[in-house]
């Protein structure tokens, strides 16, 4: 490689490392429109873009979906993705994915699965589209992982939770066929 080619490569690499460093330093705040609660409807909290999000009271009480998401995540997802969304040697940390992956892409991957096989990657996420224990609680899992990604809830079972609303109970019963 010529000296000029090496210099261009070194400048490009330095620029990439600087950009990555800046991204690592940028923290998503609870005021971010992709996180912040815009409105509540029937015990569910949403961003201004109508995407489910978590809510934690000043007293540390989590919304019902976040609590339910903890339970559902640990019944279906933690075997591969590790406890509390932390990741494992087998599968990535979902708590970070929930902050960067678009909600609709999250739903698509959970529903239809994903397979990546190439020279650098060999990973398979199974499809859960026919698993009612996942699909009926997909928003719950998503908001729990968002809360974990923001470190708004610590590892382990949330200590305090809101009561389950009648609307959430009715939706759960309808989805589960009760």
Describe the structure.
The chain has 178 residues and is mainly α. The protein contains 8 helices and 5 strands; from the N terminus they run H-E-E-E-H-H-H-H-E-E-H-H-H. Strands 1-2-3 form a 3-stranded antiparallel sheet. Strands 4-5 form a two-stranded antiparallel ribbon. It starts with a helix and ends with a helix.
Please report the total strand number as a whole number. 5
Give the second-level CATH assignment, the architecture of the largest domain.
Orthogonal Bundle
Give the end-to-end Cα distance, rounded to a whole number of Å: 68 Å
Structural class determined from secondary elements: mainly alpha
- Chain oligomer state: single chain
Question: Could you state the order of secondary-structure elements as H and E?
Answer: HEEEHHHHEEHHH
Please indicate the percent range of residues in DSSP E strands (runs of 2 or more).
Answer: 5-15%
- Unreliable parts: 1-25
By CATH reckoning, the class of the largest domain would read Mainly Alpha
Spatial shape: globular
- How many domains, in number, for the residues? 2
The number of helices is 8
Brief synopsis:
This protein is mostly helical and 178 residues long.
Key terms:
9% strand; 8 helices; Cytochrome Bc1 Complex, Chain D, domain 2; 178 residues; 5 strands; mainly alpha; 3-stranded antiparallel β-sheet; 2 domains; two-stranded antiparallel sheet; single chain
Walk me through the topology.
Layout: H1 3-25, E1 39-41, E2 44-46, E3 52-53, H2 64-76, H3 78-81, H4 94-100, H5 103-112, E4 114-117, E5 122-125, H6 132-135, H7 138-149, H8 166-176
Antiparallel strand pairs: 1-2, 2-3, 4-5
């Amino acid at each position: 490689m010529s000296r000029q080619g090496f210099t261009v490569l070194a400048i490009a690499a330095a620029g990439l490392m600087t950009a990555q460093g800046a991204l690592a330093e940028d923290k998503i705040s609870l005021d971010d429109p992709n996180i912040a609660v815009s409105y509540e409807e029937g015990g569910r909290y949403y961003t201004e873009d109508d995407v489910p999000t978590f809510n934690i009271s000043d007293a540390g009480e989590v919304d019902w979906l976040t609590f339910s998401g903890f339970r559902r995540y640990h019944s279906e997802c933690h075997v591969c993705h590790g406890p509390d969304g932390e990741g494992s040697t087998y599968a990535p940390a979902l708590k970070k994915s929930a902050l960067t992956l678009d909600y609709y892409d999250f739903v698509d991957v959970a529903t239809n699965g994903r397979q990546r096989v190439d020279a650098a990657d060999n990973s398979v996420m199974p499809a859960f589209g026919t698993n009612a224990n996942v699909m009926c609680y997909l928003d719950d899992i998503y908001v729990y992982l968002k809360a974990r990604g923001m470190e708004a809830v610590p590892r382990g079972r949330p200590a305090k939770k809101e009561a389950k609303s009648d609307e959430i109970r009715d939706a759960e019963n309808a989805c589960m066929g009760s």
